[in-house]
Amino acid sequence: MSGHGPxxxxxxxTRPYRKxxxxxxxxxxxxxxxxxxxxxxxxxxxLPGLLRDRGITGRxxxxxxxxxxxxxxxxGTLDAVLAACSSRPLAEIDPRVLDMLRMxxxxxxxxxxxxxxxxxxxxxxxxVALSDGQAKFVNAVLRRITERDEEAxxxxxxxxxxxxxxxxLAVRYAHPEWIVRAFADALGDxxxxxxxxxxxxxxxxxPGTTHLIxxxxxxxxxxxxxxxxxxxxxxxxxxxxxxxxxxxxxxxVRDNRAAVQDEGSQLAALALAAAPLDGADVRWLDxxxxxxxxxxLLGALAAGRGARVDAVEQSEHRADLVRRTVxxxxxxxxxxxxxxxGSDPALPEGGFDRVLVDAPCTGLGALRRRPEARWxxxxxxxxxxxxxxxxxxxxxxxAVRPGGVVAYVVCxxxxxxxxxxxxDAVRRTGAEVLxxxxxxxxxxxxxxxxxxxxxxxxxHGTDAMFVALLRRPVQPSSALPG
Length: 482
Ligand SMILES: C[S@@+](CC[C@H](N)C(=O)[O-])C[C@H]1O[C@@H](n2cnc3c(N)ncnc32)[C@H](O)[C@@H]1O
Description:
Elements: H1 24-39, H2 43-53, H3 58-73, H4 75-85, H5 95-110, H6 115-129, H7 132-145, H8 150-157, H9 165-172, H10 177-187, H11 195-203, E1 210-214, H12 221-228, E2 231-232, E3 239-242, H13 251-254, E4 258-260, H14 263-274, E5 283-286, H15 293-305, E6 308-313, H16 316-325, E7 331-335, E8 352-358, H17 373-376, H18 382-399, E9 400-410, H19 419-429, E10 432-434, E11 453-454, H20 457-460, E12 466-471
Parallel strand pairs: 5-6, 5-8, 6-7, 8-9
Antiparallel strand pairs: 1-3, 1-4, 2-3, 9-12, 10-12, 11-12
Bound molecules: S-adenosylmethionine (SAM).
């Protein structure tokens, strides 16, 4: 200050109040994230509705989608970085503030958003959605994150690979440790650095392609590929891989001649239909049919082979979805507990030539499709699921006739849900395990030593489906479960 007059006490300059203007895409991502954490919502159901209701389209919608799904997928890694940057333990941070921090961190570490824009645009959303004090805290933590890139943060927060490969991969590839261990066990990955496990984990983050099935007898696969701009799938003769776009816009999907179905799911149903069988081959059963993807394929194949399918589903709502899918096909849908074989006239013991058990499972084989699933699933879920799987597989082996074939299928590589279940069924029933590789399209690589097959996203581009084929012994076994 110049001049000689009496000096006045210095006043701290205050910035004029400016109303925050949150970016609609980031605001939508934040609202989707809080719905997922507070209400156990599914991001891929919640976000499209938010975008539609708020008129967010084009690049903004793509930005909000990547931000939401990426933030959910990378949660464990983002939390490890945030813990290193926050003055407070994460457990003591308000969950909404934590979601905001994760969303900011994801932009800074994974999206090509310039650091200052990522921080200020996130703080702007925080000023509206949270309090001014919380927005200041978000600002401080995010600024610390901007000091390094992702690699530098990983070097600091991930345990060294040579000391603890599972813990290292869990942070680097953003999966809980129990899932890293489950993948490594299923792959039999004996490489100390768990190199193949790393590839399997990375595949859960790869941008997903949508797989369609051209229903046999309804639409030709090449015609579907040509009309959608898609590519024929490499393995299933009915698969089309879509590059992008909304499948609901495809006429053949709308009129039920085609549907969204992972190519691995198609292969599981095809393996059951292709398994060698002596004698009658006219009554097929799908014991866990909802929402009807495999029942639709089995029904279409049965129609071409003069067979009929009974499709069983316990949930009323899901049984209705099956009915919609199989309309016009030789499929009868029953709303029943599949374990009631022998006590329900729809499920006579020994009444079926081929039986599919596509059992409820952890879904660890389809983590790439559901961004929040890897953090929501808990190891404590496994025992109740494996009990149900065991009971359903035993029921299937009672429902199939002697000499008939059961396909046991789960969308998971977890050994407790896969090989352990098959070994248990063999021990109880004396069932013969058939080689699934012979029932799959010729030339499929990396199918392992058999007889069961574990598919993998990083090897086959499919979900990680497990398929085993079991033949009920022709001689009645005293060990058959009653
Ligand atoms: C993995 S999903 C089946 C997917 C289906 N096969 C498809 O391809 O669309 C398992 C289904 O089994 C049903 N389920 C669970 N317990 C059951 C039971 N005891 N009896 C029959 N269905 C059951 C679930 O409601 C769920 O719809």
